[in-house]
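for the recovery benchmark. tokens below, seq after
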């Protein structure tokens, strides 16, 4: 397994204000797979994702990535280990006063990589997402889809073993969503990077993931392979699982009132 989480719990606040965002989660993610984590807003999925690279350190439990227990590392050891874990954020997190190439180079600069090597690797990463021609462009000159592809290149430039994606398509339009997911799928296929995607959109999971974990109220309540959806007899075991895989939007509609035109005329 590339990623193994054991009994993770993450709480915020103290006393009466204490809130548990992740509740005793254990999870295994296979090397080279694309694993989806889905749930409604507030389910704890983004916190769980940040637990994997310890951007949010869990209150208790253990995190293993490629056999290394991250929760047992010192801060300096953890910083080195994070170079093997790329992350793509929901809102791009690009610096507006730096070019696309400079944004991609940032993680390498922090790692002390020499300038010439930084430039070469940044251009290679931009080429992977077909944006080598935008190396000198600033974020303000790019579309939302291009910005997200820059953030993908930035995550890839350290040559990670794991790629964490926090709602990577929620800030782009539906057509761009398809493009971003295609790049992530191609990168997984060609480079073998284990990919974890957090989203509240089941169509994203259906398009790209091998397996999915369903979260509700901080806990993983169900897991299944996406290939199971092709089996006529398959049905998720939890109500939220069944709801999330449904493609339909159902509204509780109150009966419409028929205007009483005679009464309205009489009042006039």
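predicted aa per position
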């Amino acid at each position: 397994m590339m990623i193994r989480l054991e009994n993770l719990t993450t709480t915020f606040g103290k006393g009466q204000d204490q809130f548990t965002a992740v509740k005793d989660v254990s999870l295994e993610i296979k090397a080279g797979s694309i694993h989806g984590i889905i749930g409604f807003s507030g389910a704890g999925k983004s916190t769980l994702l940040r637990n994997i690279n310890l951007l949010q350190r869990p209150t208790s439990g253990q995190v293993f990535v490629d056999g290394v227990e991250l929760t047992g590392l010192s801060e300096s050891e953890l910083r080195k280990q994070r170079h093997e874990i790329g992350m793509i954020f929901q809102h791009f997190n690009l610096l507006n006063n730096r070019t696309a190439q400079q944004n991609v180079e940032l993680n390498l600069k922090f790692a002390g990589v020499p300038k010439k090597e930084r430039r070469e690797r940044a251009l290679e990463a931009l080429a992977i997402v077909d944006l080598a021609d935008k190396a000198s462009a600033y974020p303000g000159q790019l579309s939302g889809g291009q910005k997200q592809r820059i953030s993908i290149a930035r995550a890839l430039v350290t040559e990670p073993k794991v790629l964490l994606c926090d709602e990577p398509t929620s800030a782009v339009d539906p057509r761009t969503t398809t493009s971003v997911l295609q790049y992530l799928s191609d990168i997984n296929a060609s480079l073998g990077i284990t990919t974890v995607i957090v989203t509240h959109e089941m169509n994203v999971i259906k398009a790209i993931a091998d397996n999915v974990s369903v979260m509700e109220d901080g806990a993983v309540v169900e897991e299944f392979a996406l290939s199971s959806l092709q089996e006529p007899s398959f049905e998720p075991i939890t109500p939220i699982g069944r709801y999330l895989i449904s493609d339909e939007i159902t509204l509780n509609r109150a009966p419409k009132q028929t205007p009483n035109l005679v009464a309205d005329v009489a009042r006039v």
